[in-house]
Design a protein that fits this description.
It contains 5 helices and no strands. The protein is mostly helical. The protein has 2 domains: 1-26; 31-89, no CATH class. α3 (57-70) packs across α4 (72-84). It binds zinc ion (ZN).
């Protein structure tokens, strides 16, 4: 991983940057709320929340759908989240993309 402050490459398990002495473990481990590019249904908002809170994406979608039909907050929160939550960077996507089995018939 990289140090967020000096940008140098540091060991993954290190807590403190060897170059600038900055505590890096917490910031490096912190998840960012982004809209994933893969597996999304509409804008990836539910998918992003599911990954951020480490819950099932179907659960998030069902709860959000019910909230959208029952409350005004639920209805307006999706487009707001769509605008506010950044899209997953392309760099992260290619980095996280694990080799997938090729679908063959
Ligand atoms: Zn550093």
């Amino acid at each position: 991983m990289y140090c967020n402050y000096c940008g140098k490459v540091i060991q993954d398990e290190s807590n403190v940057c060897a170059y600038c002495g900055t505590h890096v473990a917490a910031s490096a481990a912190r998840k960012r709320l982004v809209r994933p590019r893969q597996g999304r249904k509409i804008a990836g908002v539910c998918m992003g929340f599911a990954e951020y809170f480490d819950v099932d994406v179907t659960f998030v979608r069902v709860v959000w759908l019910i909230a959208s039909f029952t409350t005004v907050i639920g209805m307006v929160s999706y487009p707001i989240a769509w605008i506010v939550i950044p899209e997953e960077p392309l760099l992260l996507q290619s980095e996280a993309a694990a080799p997938r089995p090729v679908a063959s018939s």
